[in-house]
Amino acid sequence: MGERKVGENFDAKKAEDIFDKLKNVEGKIKPKRQGEFDNIKNMMNEAQYLFDLGKLGRAIELYKQVIFVLPDSSKAYENLIKIYQKQEDLDSEKDILKKAISNCKKNEDFKKRLKEIS
To answer: Alpha-carbon distance 23 to 73, whole Å?
Structure first.
């Protein structure tokens, strides 16, 4: 059996069901999505749009939701890192870099950046 690529055969309904059942790190059940976004791609596009508008807090929320559903989404991590760099929030940047390193296969850039700021 070949290695499955991220996003291949993505079933939005199944992901939504899983999303509703899983618990986040604080132990609270994630709220059911209200249908605001049909899929991860739309969430990523909206987050980028919000970033471009300077609405960084909401963009952070969306990127974190993407990571919750797809923990190996290097693009979501990269964009979160850009936001934290823009905010000059080194602690948050370090935290997200550590998560990216542990969850993404192609993590050399994340390791290099963490070494630079540590």
So the answer is: 19
Boundaries of domain holding 29: 12-117
Written as six digits, the tokens of 74 are 């290097």
Q: pTM value?
A: 0.68
Question: CATH number for the domain including 38?
Answer: 1.25.40.10
Cβ atoms of 39 and 58 closer than 8 Å: no
Residue 96 lies in a domain: yes
The answer to whether residue 4 sits within a structural domain is: no
Record the tokens describing residue 5, joined without a space: 């690529």
Contact yes or no for 62/47 (Cβ under 8 A): yes
> Is 55 within a domain?
yes
Reported as type and span, the H/E element at residue 66 is helix 56-69
Per-residue pLDDT tens over the stretch 72-106: 999 999 999 999 999 999 999 999 999 999 999 88
* Residue 50 three-state SS: helix
Query: What are the φ/ψ torsions at residue 76 (nearest 5 degrees)?
Result: -65, -40
